[in-house]
Design brief:
Strands 3, 5, 6, 9, 10, 17 and 18 form a seven-stranded mixed β-sheet that branches. The protein has a six-stranded parallel β-sheet with strand order 13-12-11-14-15-16, sandwiched between helices. A three-stranded antiparallel β-sheet has the order 2-1-4, with no helix packed on it. The radius of gyration is 20 Å and the shape is globular. Helix 11 links the parallel strand 17 and strand 18. By secondary structure, it is an alpha/beta fold. The protein is built from eleven helices and 18 strands. Helix content is 25%, strand content 25%. The structure holds zinc ion (2 copies). The site of one zinc ion has 8 residues, from helix 2.
Length: 334
């Protein structure tokens, strides 16, 4: 079968013929890949800018935002069923796995990093219980498997009376914006890219704030005439975005850090204590979050803004993504 293989950091993915995945146990599922989203994590990994602590051995087929079709019956699912893949495979025994929060399992293994992923014609999923049966257009569905689930988790518990500042205009930020608007929150978005802010406006942002990266937070407070927010969702996670974000929160406010740009959180403890603030990291989401984000997608809450590429064009998708030229999610179709 054809696949895009990650062989060496700093080099394009290599389009090659590789062996078909083989089913070796009752639990495993082989999917014909219908579409796989290109996550910014993959772009960073290929470029050698990876800040995460996942070690990827090469050669590896990347791609963890997968929609596929079952090639056989398994665990009550029928051959031909379309499924979304939950990519973080846990040990199944620990307290996180028992709560469905496999992403926090200390023995987690991720499809597309530790196992071969979806930038291929077929993919093997180690356990059918990580599959969510779905209907609809695979190109639109694929980004739900990572960007969607993360956005849903990032908006957990935020409702109609809340004022929210979103920092950043990447795919996950634009999904979170749509979910929050459906929930009736007041949402401001701060970013540097004018075309991406225009999309945020079209998607219902109450306020967009254009700023140079180094003064995101300054501009956000200026524009809002010193208004404070109940939540600040940082989809960048760099020093420049984190620097003053906490100052924008009102009493009992919460900073949620989603982006993984590798910045440092550095604040006077008195700010936390006197305002009763919280800081929370958002990593992916639970299996339940995947089911929930699929449900709200079907109810029309969310446009996933896919930009399709053929498997052979994956290096173009990586380059354009790296240069910030794609608005929405590149989706690779084998
Ligand atoms: Zn990802
Ligand atoms: Zn576990």
């Amino acid at each position: 079968m054809k696949a895009a293989v990650f062989r060496e950091v700093g080099h394009p993915l290599s389009i090659e013929e590789v062996p078909f995945p083989r089913r070796e146990s009752e639990r495993e599922a082989i999917l014909k890949v219908l579409a796989t989203g290109l996550c910014h994590g993959d772009v960073h990994l290929v470029a050698g800018e990876w800040e995460g602590d996942i070690i990827v051995e090469t050669p590896r087929i990347l791609g963890h935002e997968i929609v596929g079709e079952l090639t056989h019956d398994v665990g009550g699912l029928r051959k031909g069923q379309k499924v979304l893949v939950y990519s973080s495979i846990g040990c199944g025994q620990c307290k996180y796995c028992k709560a469905g929060k496999y992403q926090f399992c200390e023995r987690v293994r991720v499809i597309g990093y530790h196992y071969d992923g979806g930038f291929a014609e077929y993919v093997k999923v180690p356990d059918f219980r990580y599959l969510l049966p779905v209907e609809g257009n695979p190109i639109e569905l694929a980004p739900l498997a990572d960007a969607g689930i993360t956005a849903y988790n990032a908006t957990e518990g935020i409702g109609p009376s809340d004022e929210v500042l979103i920092i950043g205009t990447g795919t996950v930020a634009l999904y979170a914006l749509q979910i929050l608007k459906r929930r009736g929150a007041f949402v401001s978005v701060v970013g540097s890219s004018v075309p991406k802010l225009e999309v945020a406006s079209k998607l219902g942002s109450d306020e967009v704030i254009q700023a140079k990266r180094r003064n995101y937070v300054e501009k956000a407070s200026e524009k809002s005439s010193r208004r404070r927010f109940d939540y600040v969702l940082d989809f960048v996670g760099a020093d420049y975005s984190l620097k003053d974000a906490l100052w924008l929160l009102r009493n009992e406010g919460e900073l949620r850090v989603v982006g993984e740009f590798g910045g440092y959180v550095h604040y006077p403890e008195q700010l936390l204590v006197l305002r009763g603030l919280k800081i929370r990291g958002i990593l992916y989401g639970s299996f339940q979050d995947l089911a929930e984000v699929y449900r709200v997608y079907r109810e029309g809450w969310l446009k996933t803004l896919p930009v399709p590429f053929k498997l052979e064009e994956i290096n173009d998708a990586i380059n354009e993504s790296h240069e910030g030229r794609i608005i929405g999610r590149p989706v690779i179709v084998p």
